[in-house]
Design brief:
The complex is a heterodimer of chains A (about 120) and B (about 120). Helix content of chain A is about 0%, strand content about 60%. Chain A is mainly beta and about 120 residues long. Chain B has about 120 residues and is mainly beta. Chain B contains no helices and eleven strands. At the A-B interface, strand 5, strand 6, strand 10 and strand 11 of A face strand 10 of B.
Amino acid sequence: AQSVTQLDSHVSVSEGTPVLLRCNYSSSYSPSLFWYVQHPNKGLQLLLKYTSAATLVKGINGFEAEFKKSETSFHLTKPSAHMSDAAEYFCVVSDKSGGYQKVTFGIGTKLQVIP
Amino acid sequence: EADIYQTPRYLVIGTGKKITLECSQTMGHDKMYWYQQDPGMELHLIHYSYGVNSTEKGDLSSESTVSRIRTEHFPLTLESARPSHTSQYLCASSNVGQGIYGEQYFGPGTRLTVT
């Protein structure tokens, strides 16, 4: 079975402070994992992806995520939040369940950045 | 920048009307998807296609239908719109050649309101 749990529906940080958006997953196969960002009234944009290479993945806009198999986690971090980071973030797992590709989205985490 | 387009961006329509949401991509991707996203909620896959003349229903049951006559075009049709169809509809595409990694490129979405 495949599932994604984003542990926080809302996260609020001050500008310039670190960001941590948490994601746990379950997968019966070796999964690929993604983080997408969605700004208001926009489509989803890929931030970064893990595809069984390096466990620490760097993405766009200073974001990175670490794949921890033992903890089944793929948390998204950024050292210093910027006002433009305010958006909704989706964690996504993809694997070949039953022989075909299945993709599951988390419910999203809304990030608020306080000036 | 992904080349995937959706029209209209916003649509307000009365109950009972037939509507078609357009989605086109210029990347030559084989796989295309339609997601439904209610405000503050997760994305739900409602339709997908592996290529021309291939269409499948997704995880969430939907009264909409889709067609894939051309690689670049994946329209979604509601024969008789109802207020329960009010939602945001996101179209996405991915390249089969990317294997199971499933990186998807998203359009900007169509926000549908049925009155």
